[in-house]
Write a structure and sequence with these properties.
By secondary structure, this protein is of the alpha+beta class. Among the domains are: 96 residues, Carboxypeptidase-like, regulatory domain (Immunoglobulin-like, Sandwich); 127 residues, Ferric Hydroxamate Uptake Protein, Chain A, domain 1 (Beta Complex), CATH 2.170.130.10; 143 residues. Helices cover 32% and strands 23% of the residues. It is built from 16 helices and 24 strands. Helix 12 runs parallel beside helix 14. The longest helix has 16 residues. The radius of gyration is 26 Å and the shape is globular. 36% of the residues are buried.
Protein backbone atom coordinates (compact mmCIF):
# COMPACT_ATOMS: atom_id res chain seq x y z
CA UNK A 1 0.00 0.00 0.00
CA UNK A 2 2.84 2.39 0.88
CA UNK A 3 4.52 1.66 -2.45
CA UNK A 4 1.30 2.38 -4.31
CA UNK A 5 0.87 5.71 -2.52
CA UNK A 6 4.51 6.58 -3.15
CA UNK A 7 4.24 5.78 -6.86
CA UNK A 8 1.00 7.77 -7.03
CA UNK A 9 2.68 10.87 -5.66
CA UNK A 10 5.71 10.43 -7.88
CA UNK A 11 3.28 10.35 -10.78
CA UNK A 12 1.49 13.45 -9.52
CA UNK A 13 4.78 15.29 -9.09
CA UNK A 14 5.81 14.30 -12.61
CA UNK A 15 2.51 15.58 -13.98
CA UNK A 16 2.97 18.87 -12.12
CA UNK A 17 6.52 19.19 -13.42
CA UNK A 18 5.22 18.75 -16.96
CA UNK A 19 2.55 21.44 -16.49
CA UNK A 20 2.53 23.74 -19.49
CA UNK A 21 2.90 27.45 -19.04
CA UNK A 22 -0.12 29.67 -19.67
CA UNK A 23 -0.67 33.36 -20.15
CA UNK A 24 -1.83 35.23 -17.04
CA UNK A 25 -3.30 38.64 -17.73
CA UNK A 26 -4.97 41.44 -15.86
CA UNK A 27 -4.78 45.04 -14.69
CA UNK A 28 -2.96 46.55 -11.71
CA UNK A 29 -4.51 49.57 -9.97
CA UNK A 30 -4.38 51.43 -6.68
CA UNK A 31 -8.13 50.98 -6.37
CA UNK A 32 -8.90 53.99 -8.56
CA UNK A 33 -6.23 54.57 -11.21
CA UNK A 34 -4.01 52.16 -13.21
CA UNK A 35 -0.42 51.71 -12.09
CA UNK A 36 2.30 51.79 -14.75
CA UNK A 37 5.64 49.98 -14.42
CA UNK A 38 4.52 47.58 -11.71
CA UNK A 39 7.19 44.87 -11.60
CA UNK A 40 5.60 41.45 -12.08
CA UNK A 41 7.84 38.44 -11.62
CA UNK A 42 7.85 34.75 -10.72
CA UNK A 43 9.65 33.92 -7.48
CA UNK A 44 12.82 31.96 -8.16
CA UNK A 45 12.77 32.58 -11.91
CA UNK A 46 14.11 35.25 -14.22
CA UNK A 47 10.78 36.03 -15.87
CA UNK A 48 9.91 39.69 -15.31
CA UNK A 49 7.21 41.83 -16.89
CA UNK A 50 5.94 45.38 -16.28
CA UNK A 51 2.46 46.86 -16.48
CA UNK A 52 1.79 49.40 -19.23
CA UNK A 53 0.33 52.89 -19.01
CA UNK A 54 -3.15 51.38 -18.59
CA UNK A 55 -1.98 49.05 -15.84
CA UNK A 56 -2.35 46.00 -18.12
CA UNK A 57 0.14 43.15 -18.20
CA UNK A 58 0.75 39.67 -19.62
CA UNK A 59 3.05 37.05 -18.13
CA UNK A 60 3.67 33.35 -18.81
CA UNK A 61 3.44 31.20 -15.71
CA UNK A 62 2.79 27.61 -14.64
CA UNK A 63 0.55 26.10 -12.01
CA UNK A 64 2.39 26.33 -8.70
CA UNK A 65 4.34 29.50 -9.59
CA UNK A 66 4.23 32.37 -7.12
CA UNK A 67 3.58 35.68 -8.88
CA UNK A 68 4.79 38.82 -7.14
CA UNK A 69 3.65 42.37 -7.87
CA UNK A 70 6.08 45.04 -6.68
CA UNK A 71 5.75 48.83 -6.88
CA UNK A 72 7.55 51.56 -4.99
CA UNK A 73 5.51 52.76 -2.03
CA UNK A 74 3.02 49.90 -2.28
CA UNK A 75 2.80 46.63 -0.40
CA UNK A 76 4.05 43.70 -2.47
CA UNK A 77 1.27 41.33 -3.51
CA UNK A 78 1.93 37.59 -3.91
CA UNK A 79 -0.49 35.28 -5.75
CA UNK A 80 -0.12 31.51 -6.18
CA UNK A 81 -0.97 30.35 -9.72
CA UNK A 82 -3.58 27.57 -9.61
CA UNK A 83 -5.16 25.33 -12.22
CA UNK A 84 -8.00 27.82 -12.78
CA UNK A 85 -5.87 30.95 -12.79
CA UNK A 86 -6.19 32.95 -15.99
CA UNK A 87 -7.05 36.54 -15.02
CA UNK A 88 -5.55 38.35 -12.03
CA UNK A 89 -6.72 41.92 -11.53
CA UNK A 90 -4.60 43.28 -8.72
CA UNK A 91 -5.35 46.15 -6.36
CA UNK A 92 -2.30 47.44 -4.51
CA UNK A 93 -2.27 49.37 -1.24
CA UNK A 94 0.17 51.91 0.23
CA UNK A 95 2.93 50.48 2.40
CA UNK A 96 2.50 52.51 5.57
CA UNK A 97 3.99 50.00 7.99
CA UNK A 98 6.57 52.52 9.27
CA UNK A 99 3.83 54.85 10.43
CA UNK A 100 2.68 52.27 12.96
CA UNK A 101 5.83 52.96 15.01
CA UNK A 102 5.01 56.66 15.16
CA UNK A 103 1.23 56.87 15.35
CA UNK A 104 -0.22 54.86 18.23
CA UNK A 105 -3.93 55.10 18.90
CA UNK A 106 -5.87 53.64 21.78
CA UNK A 107 -7.75 51.22 19.53
CA UNK A 108 -4.48 49.53 18.50
CA UNK A 109 -3.78 48.37 22.04
CA UNK A 110 -5.90 45.51 23.24
CA UNK A 111 -6.54 44.18 26.71
CA UNK A 112 -5.21 40.81 27.78
CA UNK A 113 -8.76 39.47 27.64
CA UNK A 114 -9.04 40.54 24.01
CA UNK A 115 -5.65 39.04 23.18
CA UNK A 116 -6.59 35.75 24.84
CA UNK A 117 -9.67 35.48 22.65
CA UNK A 118 -7.62 36.36 19.57
CA UNK A 119 -4.70 34.06 20.42
CA UNK A 120 -6.01 30.91 18.70
CA UNK A 121 -6.69 32.67 15.40
CA UNK A 122 -3.72 35.05 15.33
CA UNK A 123 -0.33 33.30 14.91
CA UNK A 124 1.49 36.59 15.50
CA UNK A 125 0.72 36.61 19.25
CA UNK A 126 2.98 34.97 21.85
CA UNK A 127 2.06 34.07 25.45
CA UNK A 128 4.69 34.80 28.12
CA UNK A 129 4.79 34.46 31.88
CA UNK A 130 3.78 38.13 32.04
CA UNK A 131 0.97 38.12 29.53
CA UNK A 132 0.42 37.94 25.78
CA UNK A 133 2.62 40.11 23.56
CA UNK A 134 1.38 41.61 20.31
CA UNK A 135 4.42 42.58 18.17
CA UNK A 136 2.36 45.22 16.37
CA UNK A 137 2.02 47.31 19.53
CA UNK A 138 5.16 46.28 21.42
CA UNK A 139 7.86 48.89 21.99
CA UNK A 140 10.50 46.54 20.65
CA UNK A 141 10.99 44.17 17.75
CA UNK A 142 10.07 40.53 18.19
CA UNK A 143 9.97 37.67 15.73
CA UNK A 144 7.47 34.88 16.29
CA UNK A 145 7.70 31.50 14.59
CA UNK A 146 4.35 29.73 14.31
CA UNK A 147 3.80 25.99 14.13
CA UNK A 148 2.74 26.31 10.50
CA UNK A 149 6.12 27.84 9.55
CA UNK A 150 8.29 25.44 11.51
CA UNK A 151 10.50 23.13 9.46
CA UNK A 152 9.99 19.38 9.88
CA UNK A 153 13.78 18.77 10.03
CA UNK A 154 14.08 20.22 13.54
CA UNK A 155 14.52 17.70 16.36
CA UNK A 156 14.41 20.01 19.38
CA UNK A 157 14.40 23.66 20.41
CA UNK A 158 18.12 24.00 19.70
CA UNK A 159 17.54 23.00 16.07
CA UNK A 160 14.58 25.35 15.83
CA UNK A 161 16.68 28.28 17.03
CA UNK A 162 19.69 27.31 14.92
CA UNK A 163 17.69 26.88 11.70
CA UNK A 164 14.87 29.38 12.03
CA UNK A 165 16.41 32.39 13.83
CA UNK A 166 19.42 33.82 11.99
CA UNK A 167 21.97 35.61 14.18
CA UNK A 168 21.46 33.43 17.24
CA UNK A 169 24.49 31.44 18.42
CA UNK A 170 23.55 27.89 19.39
CA UNK A 171 25.92 25.55 21.20
CA UNK A 172 25.23 21.84 21.73
CA UNK A 173 22.83 19.33 20.22
CA UNK A 174 19.50 17.61 20.81
CA UNK A 175 21.08 14.61 22.51
CA UNK A 176 23.28 16.28 25.11
CA UNK A 177 21.68 19.68 25.46
CA UNK A 178 23.31 23.07 25.09
CA UNK A 179 22.77 26.77 25.42
CA UNK A 180 22.14 29.79 23.21
CA UNK A 181 23.15 33.42 23.00
CA UNK A 182 20.50 35.60 21.43
CA UNK A 183 22.64 38.70 20.93
CA UNK A 184 25.40 37.15 18.85
CA UNK A 185 29.05 36.43 19.53
CA UNK A 186 30.02 40.11 19.47
CA UNK A 187 27.68 41.06 22.31
CA UNK A 188 29.12 42.39 25.57
CA UNK A 189 26.83 39.96 27.33
CA UNK A 190 27.64 36.87 25.26
CA UNK A 191 28.74 34.94 28.33
CA UNK A 192 25.15 34.96 29.63
CA UNK A 193 22.94 32.21 28.21
CA UNK A 194 19.26 32.83 27.52
CA UNK A 195 16.55 31.41 29.74
CA UNK A 196 13.36 29.66 28.60
CA UNK A 197 9.75 30.65 29.25
CA UNK A 198 7.65 27.55 28.57
CA UNK A 199 3.94 28.22 28.95
CA UNK A 200 4.79 30.62 31.79
CA UNK A 201 7.33 28.36 33.51
CA UNK A 202 10.92 29.66 33.66
CA UNK A 203 13.80 27.23 33.00
CA UNK A 204 17.52 27.83 32.64
CA UNK A 205 18.33 24.61 30.78
CA UNK A 206 17.35 24.03 27.17
CA UNK A 207 14.12 21.94 27.10
CA UNK A 208 15.37 19.47 24.49
CA UNK A 209 12.63 16.99 25.47
CA UNK A 210 9.89 19.13 23.90
CA UNK A 211 9.33 17.91 20.36
CA UNK A 212 8.85 20.60 17.69
CA UNK A 213 5.52 18.96 16.79
CA UNK A 214 4.29 20.02 20.24
CA UNK A 215 5.44 23.63 19.86
CA UNK A 216 2.66 25.99 18.90
CA UNK A 217 4.83 29.11 18.74
CA UNK A 218 8.40 30.13 19.50
CA UNK A 219 9.73 33.64 20.01
CA UNK A 220 13.02 35.21 21.04
CA UNK A 221 13.10 38.26 23.32
CA UNK A 222 16.50 39.88 22.90
CA UNK A 223 16.10 43.55 23.75
CA UNK A 224 16.47 44.77 27.31
CA UNK A 225 13.02 46.37 27.13
CA UNK A 226 11.49 42.98 26.37
CA UNK A 227 13.25 41.11 29.19
CA UNK A 228 13.01 43.68 32.00
CA UNK A 229 10.14 41.94 33.75
CA UNK A 230 12.13 38.72 34.06
CA UNK A 231 14.88 40.41 36.08
CA UNK A 232 18.65 39.83 36.06
CA UNK A 233 18.25 36.16 35.20
CA UNK A 234 17.12 37.21 31.73
CA UNK A 235 20.09 39.45 30.94
CA UNK A 236 21.06 36.94 28.23
CA UNK A 237 17.60 37.06 26.65
CA UNK A 238 14.50 34.87 26.77
CA UNK A 239 13.30 32.09 24.49
CA UNK A 240 9.51 31.80 24.73
CA UNK A 241 7.87 28.48 23.84
CA UNK A 242 4.11 28.05 23.66
CA UNK A 243 3.19 24.36 23.53
CA UNK A 244 -0.04 22.99 22.11
CA UNK A 245 -1.18 21.70 25.49
CA UNK A 246 -0.32 24.86 27.39
CA UNK A 247 -1.83 27.30 24.93
CA UNK A 248 -5.39 26.02 24.73
CA UNK A 249 -7.39 29.15 25.31
CA UNK A 250 -11.10 28.34 25.11
CA UNK A 251 -12.40 28.81 21.59
CA UNK A 252 -15.99 27.66 21.90
CA UNK A 253 -17.10 31.16 22.89
CA UNK A 254 -14.90 32.90 20.34
CA UNK A 255 -17.63 34.56 18.30
CA UNK A 256 -19.85 35.13 21.30
CA UNK A 257 -17.21 36.90 23.34
CA UNK A 258 -15.75 38.92 20.49
CA UNK A 259 -19.11 40.56 19.90
CA UNK A 260 -19.07 41.63 23.55
CA UNK A 261 -15.59 43.08 23.70
CA UNK A 262 -16.10 46.35 21.88
CA UNK A 263 -18.91 48.79 21.56
CA UNK A 264 -19.62 47.68 18.00
CA UNK A 265 -23.26 48.54 17.59
CA UNK A 266 -24.92 47.15 14.47
CA UNK A 267 -26.87 49.84 12.59
CA UNK A 268 -29.07 47.55 10.46
CA UNK A 269 -27.21 48.42 7.27
CA UNK A 270 -27.21 44.94 5.71
CA UNK A 271 -29.40 44.50 2.64
CA UNK A 272 -31.67 41.49 2.33
CA UNK A 273 -31.33 39.16 -0.66
CA UNK A 274 -34.46 40.56 -2.30
CA UNK A 275 -32.97 44.07 -2.26
CA UNK A 276 -30.07 42.85 -4.40
CA UNK A 277 -32.25 41.49 -7.21
CA UNK A 278 -31.87 44.72 -9.21
CA UNK A 279 -28.13 44.07 -9.40
CA UNK A 280 -28.57 40.58 -10.79
CA UNK A 281 -27.79 39.82 -14.48
CA UNK A 282 -30.63 40.41 -16.90
CA UNK A 283 -31.08 36.70 -17.58
CA UNK A 284 -31.70 36.01 -13.90
CA UNK A 285 -34.11 38.91 -13.55
CA UNK A 286 -36.13 37.66 -16.51
CA UNK A 287 -36.14 34.10 -15.15
CA UNK A 288 -37.49 35.37 -11.82
CA UNK A 289 -40.22 37.28 -13.66
CA UNK A 290 -41.20 34.39 -15.94
CA UNK A 291 -44.74 33.22 -15.43
CA UNK A 292 -44.41 29.53 -16.26
CA UNK A 293 -41.96 26.68 -16.61
CA UNK A 294 -42.39 26.76 -20.37
CA UNK A 295 -41.49 30.46 -20.53
CA UNK A 296 -38.49 29.94 -18.23
CA UNK A 297 -37.16 27.12 -20.44
CA UNK A 298 -37.44 29.36 -23.50
CA UNK A 299 -35.43 32.03 -21.69
CA UNK A 300 -32.74 29.47 -20.82
CA UNK A 301 -32.51 28.36 -24.47
CA UNK A 302 -32.33 31.99 -25.58
CA UNK A 303 -29.56 33.09 -23.19
CA UNK A 304 -27.39 29.96 -23.20
CA UNK A 305 -25.54 30.74 -26.47
CA UNK A 306 -24.80 34.25 -25.20
CA UNK A 307 -23.50 33.31 -21.73
CA UNK A 308 -22.14 29.79 -22.27
CA UNK A 309 -18.55 30.97 -21.66
CA UNK A 310 -19.43 32.05 -18.08
CA UNK A 311 -19.82 29.22 -15.61
CA UNK A 312 -21.81 31.37 -13.20
CA UNK A 313 -24.60 31.56 -15.79
CA UNK A 314 -25.13 27.82 -15.45
CA UNK A 315 -24.85 27.99 -11.65
CA UNK A 316 -27.52 30.69 -11.52
CA UNK A 317 -29.77 28.80 -13.91
CA UNK A 318 -29.36 25.56 -11.96
CA UNK A 319 -30.16 27.34 -8.72
CA UNK A 320 -33.31 28.86 -10.21
CA UNK A 321 -34.71 25.74 -11.83
CA UNK A 322 -34.00 23.54 -8.80
CA UNK A 323 -35.33 25.98 -6.26
CA UNK A 324 -38.22 27.78 -7.95
CA UNK A 325 -39.96 25.24 -10.15
CA UNK A 326 -40.82 21.60 -9.55
CA UNK A 327 -41.35 18.60 -11.80
CA UNK A 328 -38.96 19.60 -14.53
CA UNK A 329 -35.96 17.83 -16.03
CA UNK A 330 -34.05 20.96 -17.01
CA UNK A 331 -31.49 20.77 -14.13
CA UNK A 332 -29.95 17.65 -15.68
CA UNK A 333 -29.61 19.42 -19.02
CA UNK A 334 -28.09 22.48 -17.35
CA UNK A 335 -25.50 20.27 -15.67
CA UNK A 336 -24.66 18.59 -18.97
CA UNK A 337 -24.34 21.97 -20.68
CA UNK A 338 -22.08 23.27 -17.92
CA UNK A 339 -19.84 20.19 -17.84
CA UNK A 340 -19.41 20.29 -21.62
CA UNK A 341 -17.28 23.42 -21.12
CA UNK A 342 -16.25 23.52 -17.47
CA UNK A 343 -15.50 19.90 -16.57
CA UNK A 344 -11.88 20.91 -15.83
CA UNK A 345 -12.76 24.04 -13.87
CA UNK A 346 -12.74 23.30 -10.14
CA UNK A 347 -14.32 26.64 -9.24
CA UNK A 348 -17.29 25.90 -11.51
CA UNK A 349 -17.68 22.33 -10.24
CA UNK A 350 -17.67 23.49 -6.64
CA UNK A 351 -20.33 26.12 -7.22
CA UNK A 352 -22.55 23.60 -9.02
CA UNK A 353 -22.05 21.11 -6.18
CA UNK A 354 -23.10 23.74 -3.64
CA UNK A 355 -26.40 24.25 -5.45
CA UNK A 356 -27.05 20.51 -5.67
CA UNK A 357 -26.35 20.07 -1.95
CA UNK A 358 -28.73 22.84 -0.92
CA UNK A 359 -31.43 21.06 -2.90
CA UNK A 360 -30.66 17.67 -1.31
CA UNK A 361 -29.21 16.18 -4.49
CA UNK A 362 -26.30 14.63 -2.62
CA UNK A 363 -25.62 12.02 -5.29
CA UNK A 364 -25.22 14.67 -7.98
CA UNK A 365 -22.96 16.72 -5.72
CA UNK A 366 -20.91 13.65 -4.88
CA UNK A 367 -20.15 13.02 -8.56
CA UNK A 368 -18.82 16.55 -8.85
CA UNK A 369 -16.71 16.29 -5.70
CA UNK A 370 -15.11 13.13 -7.08
CA UNK A 371 -14.22 15.03 -10.25
CA UNK A 372 -12.70 17.84 -8.18
CA UNK A 373 -10.70 15.29 -6.21
CA UNK A 374 -9.20 13.93 -9.43
CA UNK A 375 -8.35 17.45 -10.57
CA UNK A 376 -6.88 18.48 -7.21
CA UNK A 377 -5.51 15.43 -5.36
CA UNK A 378 -2.97 17.57 -3.53
CA UNK A 379 -5.55 20.02 -2.15
CA UNK A 380 -6.54 19.53 1.49
CA UNK A 381 -10.06 20.73 0.72
CA UNK A 382 -10.58 17.84 -1.72
CA UNK A 383 -10.34 15.30 1.10
CA UNK A 384 -12.67 17.23 3.38
CA UNK A 385 -15.28 17.72 0.66
CA UNK A 386 -15.26 14.11 -0.47
CA UNK A 387 -15.38 12.77 3.09
CA UNK A 388 -18.34 14.99 3.99
CA UNK A 389 -20.02 14.07 0.70
CA UNK A 390 -19.81 10.39 1.62
CA UNK A 391 -21.25 11.28 5.02
CA UNK A 392 -24.17 13.15 3.40
CA UNK A 393 -24.95 9.96 1.46
CA UNK A 394 -24.93 7.94 4.66
CA UNK A 395 -21.73 6.10 3.64
CA UNK A 396 -20.04 6.66 6.96
CA UNK A 397 -17.40 3.96 6.54
CA UNK A 398 -16.22 5.50 3.25
CA UNK A 399 -16.25 8.93 4.87
CA UNK A 400 -14.05 7.63 7.68
CA UNK A 401 -11.71 6.07 5.12
CA UNK A 402 -11.29 9.43 3.37
CA UNK A 403 -10.52 11.16 6.67
CA UNK A 404 -8.01 8.42 7.45
CA UNK A 405 -6.39 8.82 4.03
CA UNK A 406 -5.87 12.53 4.65
CA UNK A 407 -4.41 11.84 8.08
CA UNK A 408 -2.05 9.21 6.62
CA UNK A 409 -0.81 11.54 3.86
CA UNK A 410 -0.21 14.34 6.37
CA UNK A 411 1.67 11.92 8.62
CA UNK A 412 3.87 10.86 5.71
CA UNK A 413 4.44 14.51 4.69
CA UNK A 414 2.75 14.02 1.32
CA UNK A 415 0.34 16.75 2.41
CA UNK A 416 1.36 19.64 4.62
CA UNK A 417 -0.21 20.04 8.04
CA UNK A 418 -2.00 23.22 8.99
CA UNK A 419 -2.63 23.39 12.73
CA UNK A 420 -4.08 26.89 12.76
CA UNK A 421 -7.25 26.51 10.74
CA UNK A 422 -7.89 23.61 8.39
CA UNK A 423 -6.80 20.75 10.64
CA UNK A 424 -9.16 21.97 13.36
CA UNK A 425 -12.01 21.76 10.86
CA UNK A 426 -11.27 18.37 9.31
CA UNK A 427 -10.46 16.67 12.61
CA UNK A 428 -13.59 18.13 14.21
CA UNK A 429 -15.63 16.70 11.31
CA UNK A 430 -13.98 13.31 11.73
CA UNK A 431 -14.48 13.37 15.48
CA UNK A 432 -18.13 14.28 14.97
CA UNK A 433 -18.58 11.43 12.50
CA UNK A 434 -17.14 8.87 14.91
CA UNK A 435 -19.02 10.19 17.93
CA UNK A 436 -22.38 10.06 16.13
CA UNK A 437 -21.89 7.06 13.83
CA UNK A 438 -18.95 5.19 15.32
CA UNK A 439 -20.83 1.91 15.58
CA UNK A 440 -21.36 1.93 11.82
CA UNK A 441 -17.62 2.18 11.25
CA UNK A 442 -15.84 0.28 14.01
CA UNK A 443 -16.68 -1.54 17.21
CA UNK A 444 -18.17 0.38 20.12
CA UNK A 445 -15.01 0.09 22.23
CA UNK A 446 -12.78 1.29 19.40
CA UNK A 447 -15.20 4.11 18.66
CA UNK A 448 -14.92 5.33 22.25
CA UNK A 449 -11.13 5.20 22.06
CA UNK A 450 -11.03 6.95 18.68
CA UNK A 451 -13.34 9.78 19.70
CA UNK A 452 -11.73 12.82 21.25
CA UNK A 453 -13.69 14.58 23.96
CA UNK A 454 -15.57 17.40 22.25
CA UNK A 455 -15.26 20.64 24.22
CA UNK A 456 -17.98 22.49 22.36
CA UNK A 457 -21.76 22.43 22.46
CA UNK A 458 -23.83 24.91 20.53
CA UNK A 459 -24.08 26.05 16.91
CA UNK A 460 -21.21 25.43 14.52
CA UNK A 461 -20.98 27.35 11.26
CA UNK A 462 -18.64 26.15 8.49
CA UNK A 463 -18.16 28.51 5.55
CA UNK A 464 -16.71 27.38 2.22
CA UNK A 465 -16.12 29.40 -0.93
CA UNK A 466 -15.49 28.19 -4.46
CA UNK A 467 -12.85 30.77 -5.47
CA UNK A 468 -9.64 30.91 -3.45
CA UNK A 469 -9.05 34.50 -4.61
CA UNK A 470 -12.24 35.75 -2.96
CA UNK A 471 -11.93 38.56 -0.44
CA UNK A 472 -14.77 39.33 1.96
CA UNK A 473 -15.80 40.27 5.46
CA UNK A 474 -18.14 38.19 7.61
CA UNK A 475 -20.15 40.01 10.24
CA UNK A 476 -21.72 38.21 13.22
CA UNK A 477 -24.42 40.26 14.97
CA UNK A 478 -25.46 39.00 18.41
CA UNK A 479 -28.99 39.23 19.87
CA UNK A 480 -28.03 42.44 21.67
CA UNK A 481 -27.15 44.15 18.40
CA UNK A 482 -23.36 44.11 18.71
CA UNK A 483 -21.14 42.59 16.06
CA UNK A 484 -17.79 40.96 15.39
CA UNK A 485 -16.18 41.07 11.93
CA UNK A 486 -13.84 38.47 10.46
CA UNK A 487 -11.84 39.93 7.55
CA UNK A 488 -10.62 37.63 4.80
CA UNK A 489 -8.58 40.13 2.79
CA UNK A 490 -5.03 40.53 1.51
CA UNK A 491 -4.75 43.85 3.31
CA UNK A 492 -5.80 42.53 6.71
CA UNK A 493 -4.38 39.01 6.64
CA UNK A 494 -2.26 38.19 3.60
CA UNK A 495 -0.46 35.40 5.50
CA UNK A 496 -3.76 33.59 6.06
CA UNK A 497 -4.75 33.73 2.39
CA UNK A 498 -1.28 32.69 1.27
CA UNK A 499 -1.41 29.73 3.64
CA UNK A 500 -4.87 28.70 2.41
CA UNK A 501 -3.70 28.65 -1.20
CA UNK A 502 -0.45 26.81 -0.49
CA UNK A 503 -2.30 24.02 1.33
CA UNK A 504 -5.33 24.11 -0.93
CA UNK A 505 -8.38 24.94 1.18
CA UNK A 506 -11.07 27.60 1.22
CA UNK A 507 -13.07 27.24 4.41
CA UNK A 508 -13.44 28.59 7.94
CA UNK A 509 -15.46 27.60 10.99
CA UNK A 510 -17.09 29.69 13.70
CA UNK A 511 -18.52 28.43 16.98
CA UNK A 512 -21.35 30.09 18.88
CA UNK A 513 -22.23 28.66 22.28
CA UNK A 514 -25.44 29.19 24.23
CA UNK A 515 -24.17 31.87 26.60
CA UNK A 516 -25.91 34.56 24.56
CA UNK A 517 -29.15 32.94 23.35
CA UNK A 518 -31.46 34.47 20.81
CA UNK A 519 -31.38 35.35 17.13
CA UNK A 520 -27.97 35.92 15.55
CA UNK A 521 -27.62 37.52 12.13
CA UNK A 522 -24.75 36.70 9.79
CA UNK A 523 -23.88 39.23 7.10
CA UNK A 524 -21.23 39.35 4.40
CA UNK A 525 -19.51 42.14 2.51
CA UNK A 526 -18.03 40.91 -0.77
CA UNK A 527 -14.82 42.66 -1.80
CA UNK A 528 -14.33 40.77 -5.05
CA UNK A 529 -11.86 38.30 -6.53
CA UNK A 530 -9.07 38.68 -9.05
CA UNK A 531 -11.24 37.80 -12.07
CA UNK A 532 -14.08 40.22 -11.23
CA UNK A 533 -16.68 37.43 -11.18
CA UNK A 534 -19.15 36.28 -8.50
CA UNK A 535 -18.07 33.97 -5.71
CA UNK A 536 -20.34 31.26 -4.32
CA UNK A 537 -20.56 30.47 -0.62
CA UNK A 538 -21.69 27.30 1.05
CA UNK A 539 -22.57 27.40 4.73
CA UNK A 540 -23.07 24.23 6.78
CA UNK A 541 -25.10 25.06 9.89
CA UNK A 542 -24.82 22.52 12.71
CA UNK A 543 -27.39 23.06 15.45
CA UNK A 544 -27.16 21.09 18.70
CA UNK A 545 -23.65 20.24 17.59
CA UNK A 546 -22.03 17.14 19.02
CA UNK A 547 -25.12 15.43 20.46
CA UNK A 548 -27.42 12.78 18.93
CA UNK A 549 -30.11 15.31 17.93
CA UNK A 550 -27.58 17.35 15.95
CA UNK A 551 -28.97 18.76 12.69
CA UNK A 552 -27.05 19.93 9.65
CA UNK A 553 -28.47 22.40 7.14
CA UNK A 554 -26.62 23.47 3.99
CA UNK A 555 -27.22 26.85 2.38
CA UNK A 556 -25.61 28.43 -0.69
CA UNK A 557 -25.23 32.14 -1.45
CA UNK A 558 -23.99 34.11 -4.41
CA UNK A 559 -21.74 37.07 -3.64
CA UNK A 560 -21.59 39.33 -6.66
CA UNK A 561 -22.26 42.90 -5.59
CA UNK A 562 -19.08 44.39 -4.16
CA UNK A 563 -18.71 46.53 -1.04
CA UNK A 564 -22.31 46.02 0.04
CA UNK A 565 -23.08 44.51 3.42
CA UNK A 566 -25.73 41.86 2.75
CA UNK A 567 -27.64 39.60 5.07
CA UNK A 568 -26.98 35.91 4.53
CA UNK A 569 -29.08 34.22 7.20
CA UNK A 570 -30.26 34.29 10.79
CA UNK A 571 -29.90 31.48 13.27
CA UNK A 572 -31.62 31.07 16.62
CA UNK A 573 -29.14 30.04 19.31
CA UNK A 574 -30.49 28.12 22.26
CA UNK A 575 -33.53 26.55 20.58
CA UNK A 576 -34.11 24.00 17.87
CA UNK A 577 -35.67 26.59 15.61
CA UNK A 578 -33.73 28.21 12.83
CA UNK A 579 -34.70 30.88 10.34
CA UNK A 580 -32.77 31.28 7.10
CA UNK A 581 -33.30 34.14 4.68
CA UNK A 582 -32.39 33.52 1.03
Amino acid sequence: MKKIVFVLFLTLNFVVSQEKSKVISGTVTDGQTPLQNVRIFIDGKETVEFSDVSGRYLINAKKGDMLSYSYNGMKTVEILVEDVTRILNIEMFPDVEELKEVVVTKSQRKSQQELELEYNSNPKLIKTAYGIIDPRTAAYQIRILSEASMSSVNLCILDVLRNEFPGIVVTGDCSNGGFINVRGSNSLFNDQAAIYDIDGQILTDAPIWILPDNMKRVAVLSSFAATTKYGAIASGGVVVINTNAGSAYPSSKEVTDKTRLRNNKYNNDALGQAALFDNEPIYLQELRNSGSLREAKKLYDFYTPRYKSNYYYFVDALDYFMGELENNDLPNRILDDALATFDQNSNALKALAYILQTNDDFEGAHRLYKEIFLLRPNYAQSYLDLANSYSDLGLTAKAATMFARYDYLVGKDFLEKDSLNFNNIIYRDFNNLVSLHGNDIISENKAKKSTLEEDFRGTRLVFEWNDSEAEFELQFVNPQGHYFTDKHTLVDDSDRIRREKLLGYSCAEFLIDGSLPGTWQINAKYLGNKSLTPTYFKVSIFTDYGIPKQRKDIKAFKLGTRNINQELFKVNIGTNKQVVNN
